[in-house]
Amino acid sequence: MSAWGAEVLEIDLATEADRIATWMRDTTRRLRRRGLVVAMSGGIDSSVCAALAVKAVGADRVQGLLLPERDSSGESTRLGRRLAEHLGIRHEVHDIAPALEAIGCYRERDAAIRQVFPDYGDGWKNKIVLHGGIDGGINFYKLVVQSPSGETREARLPLEAYLRIVAATNHKQRLRKTLDYYHADRLNYAVVGTPNRLEYDQGFFVKNGDGSADIKPIAHLYKTQVYAMARHLGLPDEICSTKPTTDTYSLPQGQDEFYFALPYAQMDLALWSCEQGRPAEELAATLGMTVQQAQAIHADIQAKRRAAEYLHAPPAVFAMA
Q1: CB contact at 8 A, 235 and 86
Q2: Considering the domain boundaries, does residue 316 fall inside one?
Q3: Same domain, yes or no, for 85 and 202?
Q4: Mean pLDDT for each 10-residue chunk of the chain (321 residues)?
Q5: Quick one: 33 and 182 in the same domain?
Q6: Which residues pair with 125 in a beta bridge?
């Protein structure tokens, strides 16, 4: 079987940037909104969306938001500020930790963690890590914690505790979206959603959280293409070289640890091969893995698509006869 590589994802970046910006401008007008709100995490996706928003409607009609909380990396806020200054847009910083504390986000999460590690408490850090995927097994999560002394422990996460942790941490994305729409309502702006193609297709977003938006300008771009677009748009080097993280848990966590079976560059090619109907043998040759592993990746993509149907579904409305 022949192999292929990242060249299959190459696009005309100048033409694509113009096409997206024109669509964003036209859509903003169609929605009868005066500008665009973008929540900027310092990551590549929101950075590209902010730059495209400026290209579409001008810097004076883009409102940037930085929304850190207790577990956020300070680097995320620094990069968000750096981007806002680079683009010349207004930006505000809202620390959402007090609101999250008030609604029980941290309390409920910590209670769930103590179901697995009873001595978990102040000064400890945590994350959850995906296992399964590439090996063809059933996906399951492990809970990883670190004590104040630096000792790291991990254990398989029972379903009840997993669901409680996820439900609690989803408060973060939903509260951020509340602030997005506050500023959108205040300014009569539209809210920009920032998922790339991999995240949108595979359901890597929170329903009525970061999945909620008025326009989603890069949901058709693979992550690899988003990085290329960032360089084309002249974004700062330190933003163009950022690694994808969840920035949700207190321990450092890559997106491939939490959700995807592979790092983004390989996942892009795996998703492309699924969309193009290419056989697992070709993917195996491209990524240097066994055919069985490639088959498992294809199966994992399809399983996540099925799970994402709920996330993409609009409300079910009973139709009167």
Answers
A1: yes
A2: no
A3: yes
A4: 86 98 98 98 96 98 97 93 97 98 98 97 94 71 96 96 97 98 98 97 96 98 98 97 88 83 92 96 95 93 95 92 74
A5: yes
A6: 146
